[in-house]
Amino acid sequence: MRPPLPLRPLRRLFSSAVSRPSPPPPDESHLLRRNLLSLLTRAPLNEELCTATLSRLTPLDLDRHLLELRPSIHQRHALRLFSYASDRLRFPFTPLSFSILLHSLLLARLRSPAHLLLTRLLDPLRSPPLLLSHSHNRLPELLHSLADSSPDDSSISAALDVLLHVCCTRFPPDHGLPLAVSSVRILVDRGLCPSLRSCNFLISSLAKSRKHRDARCVFDEMRRFLSPDVFSYTPLIDALCKGGRVEEAVVLFAEMENSGISPTVVTYNALLDGLCKHGMVAEALRLKERMIVEPSVVTYNVLINGLVKLDRFVEANCLLDEMKQKGIRPNEFVYNTLIDGHCRFGRFEEALRLLDEMVRKGMKPNQVTHNLLVKGLCNAGQMEQAEQLLEEMLMRKTVVNEGVFNSVVSLMLKAGSRFESAVRLIKEMLLRDLKPEGSVLTSLIVGLCKNSKHQEAMEIWLTMLEKGYHVEVVASNALIHGLCELGKLEEAVGLLEAMLEKGLAVDRVPYNTLISGFCKEGKMEEGFRLRGCMVKRGLEPDIYTYNTLIHGLCNLGKMDEAIGLWNELKCKGLVPDIFTFSSIIDCYCKAKEFDKAKTFFKELDTWNLEPNVVIYNSLVSGYCEIGNLKETSRLMDEMVERGIAPDIFTYNTLIFGFCKDGKMEEAFKICDLMSQRDLALDEVSYTSLVDGLTRSGCEKEAKFISEGIIQYGIGPQNAKTS
């Protein structure tokens, strides 16, 4: 062994109920030693004597006495003394004192107390008072003390083995494994190394936690002192493969073989799996051919899986036949691999044939088998077969996972014709404590609300919350939107309040939806109240909020309040959009305040906005109402010049205006324009023409048009043709 590394002078970092005593005189020192021996060898613990003795000792004095008294220590009595002094007196033992106790416990084969002691010492949150040179030196000082206080080589080896085992098993991997790796590095630097068995256990633990770099580090440190065996190489090869370092694993495998170490079937399987998963199937097949041990069912499953993913089913089936010839019975994993592969490539007949073969051979297809088939059928759009298979699974009480339910329900909702079945399956999921996907739940809620089944949608939503499932904001918003669409505004408000009470995430969308609903019904006070609630929750109104409120005020003719909001949104730095302008321009046109409408129309350029057909229709309709057909025609020409196609409303407005003014020739010219642009006259168009002709005294023509269009199922509204 190398000599111990020098440690910094110790200083007290933990408070102690025991004040620092002055050095005792020689006679008193002898008395303290005798009292300490009594405390370490007799039961029960004399707490009064313990308090008095430790009050006269420093932690370093205690170290010296413990080293001298070590041969006489009774381990269980010593454990009680340390426990009382640490927990009740808060006496700050040194790492050396605890190391002496630990060696004594291991010497007496008291492994369980030794494990518990090390667990406490390594955990800063649960550690007893400990005198350290520096708080971050806990692990190095403890390791050096274990080495310094070891009576012989076997004792230090046993202590280090226990320490590694505690690190790997008593702590979460993210805390314990780094401790173990650091311990190995510190020990190796001192010229010490845990046993091969413990190093292998650590490498295996690191491999299972996908810490391939640390596993490699421990392996390299270990072999400075020890010769690795197959149990050292196997987990490391597995870890390297899973970490994507397959080429390094291949080199390590060759090194193992060259060292005269024979790989086990587990070693082969680890490397074969890595090769296949990284697309190196040809190399995997060559390795299989030179195996010096018999392949296992896992070997074949790994290779078949690799071939299936490449759509090489002929070779996969050859391996399946080879298995049977060797007397190796394919298990569920092999069949599931093949079934999954056939499903992914759309060969469902073959997948179902394999399912039947499993049953014939006495194998019970498990939930994975069925789940693979159902998901495969769903991915291929085979809804009826997927639903039928799922129903069979439910009848047989086969465990069905969330993914399968979600896949089938999603397919049903997309089809549109299986809505009731989708609802039933969602309820079945909830009964089985399975959570529907967010997108599936949202689609279902939207569908229920469209079918006026808002109560059923509410029940599903509430069941989700009762089961503690997180309901995505989109699903909750969809339900509020659905209720608003049905005019169930009070229920929608209640739902929003329930969301807030349950602490669910709420964004602007439900508030904007509700504000829109109340504005459509002319209940502006409620709309503004909701805006206030929104602001109180720290959600600033956006342009959609303002557009909704402005539109509602405009519909009620409250232009002063609407313009007030217009000014407010600009002050808040929001940018008005085409919908903002559309509402205001339309309202001014209806109020026949065309100068103000034109002012806003011109301001569109200021905001880099292009007018749309809706805005032009408002202007066209407004000017038509006052009989200014010249301006109406000019606006339509301007629309065409800007590349904005007039719609049926634009043309009907012009037809109505010309007919009302008795200008039937111009009205029919508009009809010709519509025909040129592939727009068919509708009921409104014909009604205007019939009324115009009738008022112009052309009753015969009016009757002709009226009778001619009835055969197409279109009839003029209240047209006077006689």
From TrEMBL:
Gene3D superfamilies for the chain: Tetratricopeptide repeat domain (1.25.40.10)
From what superkingdom does this record's organism come? Eukaryota
Mention any Pfam family matching this sequence.
PPR_1
Which parts are the PPR repeats?
195-225, 229-263, 264-294, 296-330, 331-365, 366-400, 401-436, 437-471, 472-506, 507-541, 542-576, 577-611, 612-646, 647-681, 682-716
Question: Which keywords fit this entry according to its UniProt record?
Answer: Repeat
What SUPFAM superfamilies does the annotation carry?
TPR-like
Output the PROSITE patterns linked to this UniProt entry.
PPR (PS51375)
**PANTHER family from the entry?**
PENTATRICOPEPTIDE REPEAT-CONTAINING PROTEIN 3, MITOCHONDRIAL
Per the record, the similarity remark reads: Belongs to the PPR family. P subfamily.
The protein in question is named Pentatricopeptide repeat-containing protein
